Amino acid sequence: MAASVNGGIRHSLAMERTGQWVFSQEIPTDVVVRVDEANFSLHKFMLVAKSNHIRKLIVESKEPDLTRIDLSDIPGGPEIFEKAAKFCYGVNFEITVHNVAPLRCAAEYLQMTEKYCTNNLAGRTEDFLAQVALTSLSGAVVVLKSCQDLLPLAEDLKIVQRCVDVASLKACNEANFPSRSPTNWWTELSILDIDFFGKVISAMKQRGAKNLTIASALITYTERALPDLVRDHSGTGTKFSDPGDSNVRIQQRELLQSIVSLLPAEKAAFPINFLCCLLRSAIFLNASSTCKSELEKRISVILEHVTVDDLLVLSFTYDGERLFDLESIRKIISGFVEKEKSMAVFSAGDFKEMCSTAMHRVAKTVDAYLGEIAAYGELSISKFNGIANLIPKGARKVDDDLYRAIDIFLKAHPNLDEIEREKVCSVMDPLKLSYEARVHASQNKRLPVQIILHALYYDQLKLRSGADEDQGVVESVPAARSQLQNDVSLVRENEALRAELTKMKLLFTDIQKSGTVVGSTSSRGGSRKPTFFSSVSKKLGKLNPFKHGSKDTSNLEDIVDLTKPRRRRFSIS
Question: Which strands make up the sheet holding 31-35, listed edge to edge?
């Protein structure tokens, strides 16, 4: 409503201004030209002298005296027609970079060309384009932006192409030989529509512009075009409840997909935090799988530079209260690992035994990332293990960060049974825990019994072998792991036999107390009792997990000195 009122006011002012220079001719008007909601009372002979289109309308009209002409489809609307009419009347007006393209299109529509009349409006606008508007980057960009509502006529007149050529040339020159300080020429391109911006970027690529130059322009354009989704590369933007399929979201989705399609072939041209923000926006807007896949590949190539915050940007919604689907995280890590495997093959190395520095760095980052998301109850065991298992075992020098993530996960999911807790802990190698982590694990009631036994038994082995506690992981990890598995199995059998022996002792005591058939039982079983206990004792001796230690494992936990002060916190409790 307000827009229509303002439009009416502008049209009234236009009519008032037009009346001033029309009536000054002191000749009654004989035709009314209608353009949208505006009416212009003019003289036929003044219009016909410059416009071949109006002349044809009057000549070819079936009415003997044509008094009304409708030109509502003229490019630029009433404001541009007013200037064209002034030109017909010889009234001066200013041609600027903002109106030169609409005036040129209007001149073509009204057939105000040099063929019809010399020094006509078309010639005047062409001179301004060549001598003023298209001599600078800012001028070319402003003219190009004004062509947005003039299609397809502006393209037919080659105005768009000329603007693109000049803008791309000036931008490349400015990038190679800066003439301003600061060198922020790319901010001028950000006012363009995505289609025109894409044309300029493509032209710059053809001119050999550097990838970093293209990247700077794309980053600035994205931050201005999608300010509520991408802001300062931090991922902090306006909070949304649900993207839905509103017109705004549809437009943002199409804009984002167009921006991604313009990314240069060099995948390392962009900072990883910017790519993570783009991918989070693509996930939020339900962008096409092609768009998301392209961003995932670009991130995986430079994943060694990723931080925990970058991964968290991909993991949470904009309000930070719930997790996204972590499928993109899984694909990114998997792509990086596959790249590392390929490089190891070309280097004739063993990827399982030897990992690159980049792989070690990514492993540490992923373990820290798991510790951040483990506290969320909606994170399932399969997703947690799926991400943890993507990292090769050899990429982790120690499993302390992974143990911390597991401990946080177990605390955030207190209702897990023994089997589920063992499944969570299966991604960790207890032999690769530091001394502090093993001490913590040996007292951690949230861990399954098997993991506690691993921690206790490993320290027992080190104490008996005289190994230095500060060495960390033993050199022969595979052999120690195999021996540990065998010994743990023996410990379990030992405990089972111990339980069976206890039951037999209780049963025998009850029979003695009952006083029934004691004599007969003693006579029949007297010769067998020492045989049974001696056999059990022999089995217990054979199943002793410590080859030269005590045969009693009931006090196994006493072997570890738990009084040593902790040097690191491994739990959120």
Answer: 38-42, 31-35, 68-70
